[in-house]
Amino acid sequence: MLLPNGFAGRYCGDLNATWYGWQNEGGVMTTTNFFPAGLYRGKTVFVTGGGSGINLGVAKGFAAFGANIAICGRKQERLDGAAKELEALGAKVSARAADVRKPEELNVAFAQCRDTLGPIDILVCGAAGNFLVPADKLSPKGFKTVIDIDLLGSFNAARLAFDQLVQTKGSIIFISAGMAHAPYAFQLHVGAAKAGIDRMMQNLALEWGQHGIRVNSIVPGPIAGTEGMKRLGGADHERRGDRQIPLGRMGTVEDIAQAALFLCSPAAEWITGVVLNVDGGSGLAGSANFNANAARLLAEQQGAS
Ligand code: COA
Ligand code: NAP
After folding, report:
1. pLDDT mean over 224-228
2. Which ligand has the nearest atom to the CA of 283?
3. pLDDT at residue 248 greater than cutoff 60
4. Of ligand 2's atoms, which has the minimum distance to the CA of residue 194?
5. What is the pLDDT of residues 29-81, one digit of tens each?
6. Same domain, 107 and 243
């Protein structure tokens, strides 16, 4: 059928909803309508935290265009499930449990990736942890845990992939968050970690450009159906969220995948050191809506524990 935006595809959303969710006839990805088939054929994409949510969506985006995919996370079972989904898109997959806080585990995952798929062309650093907590209740261990996973873990991955990326003149994408650029209530730890990521991203872009390596960040807005949304917004916010977003709908994992596909493509070959908001304009209104909802959700979570 012809969709409201003029593209052909099979509509699979709720006709009464304010968003359009649709897939191509194979039920695979929307993105195949926007980029040339085979754009990433033969490329190797490594995604940290690629076993679920946004990161898996990004991995699937690259797989739909011919890339082979390596993923890591802490739970091998989750990675094995994700690997099946990626293989169904035609990708060869290396799925190896590795905690991004542990360089020795990441090194093994990178070596397995290189040995089975070839050197890394694209590294996506998406592994992260989050929870709502007021600053005066945040323990040093809680702060350190999120800094270690998000910031140190992203550094570990970029640093340890460097030799492979030099070989391929590759590209890095960091998955950041709005908390890096404005204060969000009960998100001090995440704001500090993600702000660190975006500054690190620019340092790497500055220093590694001479090797042909491009480095950019994506800041997703609220993405429906994800763990992050569940933890920070709750089901109720997800239902009401689209009304507070200038473009009138929640984000999808495909929205983020499409941005990553663009940023790593030859169309972006002179783009490095950039923070790309992919948020339907939700960041423009600041964090007030988030803060009010988070206070309510936090009270609910505290009541339940
Ligand atoms: N409120 C306040 N502090 C919390 C907390 C919460 N809800 N959850 C964890 N912490 C703090 C505590 O200080 C805790 O130490 P303690 O248990 O000794 O008090 C510390 O964080 C470490 O927690 P732990 O569960 O041992 O860490 P972990 O490394 O096993 O897990 C988390 C990391 C906490 C981030 C966990 O939520 C996780 O694995 N998240 C991954 C998925 C996710 O967050 N997805 C959304 C991405 S946006
Ligand atoms: P998610 O599904 O929970 O993704 C996080 C992934 O990171 C999981 O697969 C998790 O797997 C992995 N992970 C966590 N700790 C790890 C560690 N120490 N080592 C290796 N892997 C680890 O959540 P999501 O909501 O899709 O979020 C994905 C990314 O998008 C995050 O960077 C998040 O900050 C960002 N983001 C999300 C939203 C949103 O609306 N959801 C908005 C803005 C930004 P294991 O548990 O198996 O390790």
Report:
1. 96
2. 2
3. yes
4. 34
5. 555 568 998 999 999 999 999 999 999 999 999 999 999 999 999 999 999 99
6. yes
What pLDDT score was predicted for residue 7? 39
113 lies in the same domain as 1: no
**Are both 20 and 147 inside the same structural domain?**
no
Nearest to 279 by CA among 242, 230, 227: 242
66 and 201 share one domain? yes
- Provide the domain count of the chain: 2
**pLDDT score of 243:** 77
* Domain shared by 4 and 131, yes or no: no
Q: Are residues 132 and 246 in the same domain?
A: yes
Spatial separation of the C-alpha atoms in residues 165 and 160, rounded to whole Å: 10
CA angle 96, 59, 175 (to 5 degrees): 95
Cβ–ligand 2 distance for 74 under 6 Å, the answer: yes
User: Distance from the CA of 16 to the center of ligand 2, in angstroms?
Assistant: 30
155/205 same-domain check: yes
Domain range for 15 is: 1-34
Residue 2 Cα to ligand 2 middle (Å): 35
Which of 100, 133, 138, 145 for mutating ligand 1's site (highest number of atoms within 8 Å of CB)?
145
Residue 95 beta carbon below 6 angstroms from any ligand 2 atom: no
pLDDT of residue 32: 56
What is the pLDDT at residue 304?
A: 81
CATH number at residue 264: 3.40.50.720
